[in-house]
Amino acid sequence: MSKTRLLATAASLALTGGMAHAESVLHILHTNDFHSRIESINKYDSTCDAETEEAGECFGGSARLATKIAELRAEFEAAGEPVLLLDGGDQFQGSLFYSTYKGKAAAEFMNTLGYDAMAVGNHEFDDGPEGLVALIEAADFPVLSANIDASQSNLLADKLVGSAVVDLDGEKIGIVGGTTINTPEISSPGDALIFQGQVDGIAADVEELTEQGINKIVAVTHIGFQGEQELAANIPGLDAVVGGHSNTFLSNTDESAEGPYPFMVDGADGTQVPVVQAYAYGKYLGHLKLTFDNDGKVIAAEGEPILIDNSVEPDAEVAARIAELGAPIEELKTRIVAETAVPIGADRVDCRAKECVMGSLVADAMLDRVKEQGIQIAIQNGGGLRASIDAGPISMGEVISVLPFQNTLSTFLLKGEDVVAALENGASQIEEGAGRFAQVAGLKYTVDPAAEAGSRISDVQVMMDGAWTAIDPQAEYGVVSNNYMRSGGDGYDVFAVNGMKAYDFGPDLADVLAEYLIQQGPDFEPATDGRITVLGDAGDDASAETGENADGGEAAAE
User: Fold this and answer.
1) What is the b/e burial string over 463-493, where b = at least 16 CB atoms within 10 angstroms of the residue's CB?
2) In this prediction, what percent of the chain has a pLDDT beyond 90?
3) The pTM is what?
4) What's the chain's average pLDDT?
5) Which of 128, 262, 352, 485 sees the fewest Cβ atoms within 10 Å?
6) Which are the contacts of 231, defined by CB distance < 8 A and separation ≥ 6?
7) Is 334 in contact with 514 (CB distance < 8 Å)?
């Protein structure tokens, strides 16, 4: 993005030199990429347990959001200032609430909180177009996408719309939806839906609303921060973009933010257009305040995301309903999903220093899930493997205990030299038993723990066309990892900095493992196969075969 499109902002920004004599205010509360975090979350964005909740260290959850939204609505409406509640998509996928209830729970709690509109996210298609149909039918609000042509779909042709008009005490607000054009590559929308260009598709609906006399128009989209800036820059008549998909955190007060809130972009018709997101998982509630002149032009934009932490008391009725729906989830944890003929070891010492059975299994499952997307290499941090599995039936609870962090698959392109750099990072703290050690699939390498950090990796080979081939430092390879590592966790900065065409919000890693185990059948005997050679190692993998549980007390970072 050119520098001319970025305007310095503070918490409040006037967009014109003079204020029109007739002004109106609109408050927009918003969430995005909620990913079924109906229960509260911990600092790792995973479902909070009772002990952490008791310690006051949990965030978000529908019950806390209900309290904060009701409080703000009452405050703004008492001042005669209307309020919109919008969601930027991806309500689906990410917790056992979704595994159990699919979109029914999402619709119920969004109805309870009083959402006015929602964008269609790519994960809303994870169970095919049928999953989106169920959400639309259950929702008390419009679910929107202007750049999806559903006219050829017998399921969605009469249900999916691009835009809607919300009447707020006589004030008509146009809302236009949008969805990432990459959805067919990363989800399962089916062949009947046509994904149009994001700018053109949304611009057509904005123009139609303008022709109807609507002069206040907001886009709620699931396109990603960069793409949403393009919408703001190229669509005349658009007053604000409330986004999602990239989990972008904007703030005027937090140094970790990716930019100011709101992020201002030079618009197509000479105005400045605010673009906002509110991170993800319900940890923050976005609050954008817009001031319009009498012609419907935004003359001021201000706001800040609100941290939904322990200071927000959960709504008692919503919390009770969450507890009620949560009861069968405990039963889900005991449900048998697969079987193994041998123990699957995840001994802490092994998985952080050499190839371990669970590490190879998880990496194989990751690679199998995305190999049809041209992905050749899987890399999983050993510290993310938190338990072993005994021989015999495997419960979903056991799978979740192995991969409890609700990490999602991340795919991206990486040069061969950066793959080697990632492996060097994985081996850089091997003597400390750090969790960054790289378990792999589609890849072989040798590690020398006695060498200096940064020069421990050699003989890196990639499986290409059925044969092991020396890695090419300048070639680009398709890599799958988890979203924690892709964002630089466990020292994998090379993923965050040099990863190309990244998508960080694939299916939950525990679900991927469970489905892979089901495919293998009851006689499956996972084992190590020599894909990682450790120089000086005695080769004693007995501890990896015992099925003993790894120490489960650490966080995903380790």
Assistant:
1) beeeeeeebeeeeebbbbbbbbbbbebbbbe
2) 75
3) 0.72
4) 90
5) 128
6) 178, 198, 199, 202, 219, 221, 223, 238, 241
7) no
How far, in Å, are 164, 172, 215 from residue 212 at the CA level? 12, 11, 9
The Cα angle at residue 416 between residues 413 and 420, in degrees rounded to 5: 115
The pLDDT tens digits of the residues spanning 291-343 come to 999 999 999 999 999 999 999 999 999 999 999 999 888 777 788 999 999 99
d(CA 379, CA 371) in angstroms, rounded, equals 13
pLDDT band of 7, cuts 50, 70, 90:
very low
Token representation of residue 313: 């008391």
As a whole number, mean pLDDT of residues 159-188 equals: 92
User: Which class is domain 30-327?
Assistant: alpha beta
Contact (CB, 8 A) for 220 and 32: no
Angle at 440 between CA 335 and CA 554, to 5 degrees: 60
* Amino acid symbol at 292: F
Fold of 336-545: 5'-nucleotidase;  domain 2 (3.90.780)
Place of tokens 């890399």: 379
CA distances to 201, 221, 247, 486, 505 from 493, rounded to whole Å, are 36, 29, 18, 8, 18
Give the residue extent of every domain in the chain. Answer: 30-327, 336-545
DSSP character for 47? B
Q: Rounded CA gap, 142 and 435, in Å? A: 44
Residue type, 112: T
Confidence of residue 12 (pLDDT cuts 50, 70, 90): very low
